[in-house]
# Entry
Amino acid sequence: MALLWGILALALLLVWTLLYRKASNQYPGAERMEMEGIRLQRLAPPMLYVLERVKVSQRLPLFFFKIQRSVTRINGQQSGGEYTMLFLAEMLTYSFLLLIGGCFISLGMEGESTGFLIGAVLAVLLPLALVNDLNSKVKRREQQILLELPELLNKIVLLVGAGSTVQQAIKQCLERKRGQEGHPLYRELFQMQRECEGGYSFAQAMEGFSKRCGMQEVSAFTTAVLLNYRRGGSDFVLALRDLSHTLWERRKAVGKTLGEQASSKLVFPMVLLFLIIVVLVGTPAFMIMDL
# Structure
């Protein structure tokens, strides 16, 4: 039985080697692609080749679209398809390596199939964990935008009420946030500003900003600005104030949700601390009773 696992491990390694030699020259840019959570870019070419041959976007369009939508929200739309393929290749690479590792574990256990079963289970669970982590990052990004958007809108309302145009108000807000380019909202706003400076109209830049954020609240903000910014005056300020009130209510809901999540995370440490205290207090009492 041990010989069987050894042959299977060598066969998997041989397949991996052949795929890598065949695909390494076809995807030279994979090593230079940077994406949060991706660590195996150098090992991606074999699985990229397999995904391209299988035509995963055509065979599993719903799954591919869901992954692509999440990846696009995090890394932008320009290279969304490439990053999606890289993420899927990362999933398959982990699964393939875990299967090889399971074979070697079984080989080390003198033919027991337990090692391979562990590797096979992890080969299924780890890709699911990667997808769940990706969705968590998207949700966290949306929460960060929603927490910051009402404050930004309030500043724009004050500046517009003081006589500034919308473009000037947004520019002044961004000048005060130069150190926060990593924040998802301000990263997209800085991109919008660069597009305006590069020749895009304000309406085109705002629409691109809304698409990149991919949130209903940002779409409402963009729509309110584009419908009223040319007219200006009290009507525009009133429309933004109404939207600001709605966004503050949603920010409160997000803050409440985050608070509940934080409190739930404290339950286990509190229970563990309680058990430790019970043991520390109860052990001497039981020892006295035994005496």
Remarks:
- The radius of gyration is 27 Å.
- The longest helix spans residues 114-161.
